[in-house]
Every structure is written in C-alpha cells, then in structure tokens.
Write a structure and sequence with these properties.
There is one protein chain. This protein has helices at about 20-25, 30-50. By secondary structure, the protein is an all-alpha fold. The radius of gyration is 15 Å and the shape is globular.
Length: about 70
C-alpha cells in the first residue's frame, strides 16, 4: 500500500494526499509520481526480502524521496 503525504512545516503533521490530488495540484507530474511509486515499492520489496532472510517481518516503513535538479536524469 502506498500512502503519500504532504511535507508539513516543522512541528506540524504530514497529511495524507492522493495521487489525483498530487497531480491536480501540480506537485508532481504523472511520470515522476509513477516513477517514485515504483522506487518506493522496489525499496520495500528489497527490505522485505532482507528482513525475511533474517526471520523478521517488515510491516511498515517510510521513504522520503526528493528531486535534485542538478542531478542527471537516469
């Protein structure tokens, strides 16, 4: 399950936001959102495999992704 949130100011709580809201507000374009979602799912899958190999269960995690405008696109 992917549950994106806003990034709140210090001392405030992040708020859940849907893919549709992110796209409508122009926070990200569709391609960037979908790429970030794929990265988050891949990170979780790898973390889950790692945990399972050690007899653990990865039940929940948080990834914070951002854009570096100076980095080359890959």
């Amino acid at each position: 399950m992917l549950t994106p949130t806003t990034k709140a100011a210090k001392g405030q709580h992040d708020e859940p936001v849907s893919r549709a809201e992110i796209l409508a507000q122009g926070i990200l374009d569709e391609e960037t959102f979908d790429r970030a979602a794929r990265v988050a799912r891949a990170l979780f899958a790898e973390g889950r495999r790692w945990a399972e190999s050690r007899g653990l269960v990865l039940a929940d995690t948080k990834y914070e992704l951002g854009l570096d405008e100076t980095a080359r696109s890959s």
